[in-house]
Fold:
Amino acid sequence: MKSLSFEFRVILAVVGLSIFAFSEAWGDDWVFYGGSREERVKESTLRDWYVLNRLRPLPKNEATTHHYYDRDSVASNYPYPGGIVRVWEKYVFQRETKTYEEVREGIEKEEEKRLKRKLNTLDYGWLFLFAANRATKEVMTLYEINCDTREFFIMEVNQYDKAEKRMTRESNIEMTLWVAIQPETMMELLAKELCK
Structure:
């Protein structure tokens, strides 16, 4: 009976290690699909979530922004052609950035010096988005792409700093605004990649 118990424990250990080893491979699988020139939002509190539909593709060595999609997140009506594909896309700025905290502290000092006073609660309302935009290293967006009508829809957008800390998360609550994919843009490149 002792040997059966020992064998059972060995089998459980092997199964456990196998699950652990394979769980490491179940993470994100980001695939580079193109590069573009960065559109900066340094001095703004607003970010254009539809920028992908305007950016022109560039070779990777000329690009200041690299674009990826998560192969593991692709959900479509496969094996049927066309239809709607859902995917996580991210673009990563190829410039040096600071963490959100570092940027916020720098802006606080700049503004207190400019205003010649301590910042108040109302000042922090605009300061948050201003600092988040300046600290953004990557933006992750959940898209739905209609391969038949050549339109896309943004479901969610997240901004991350260089420490991979999520600073903002915006969800599209209306879920009605489908936008036509513009030719010769990063959005068209992504759609071609996913609507094969």
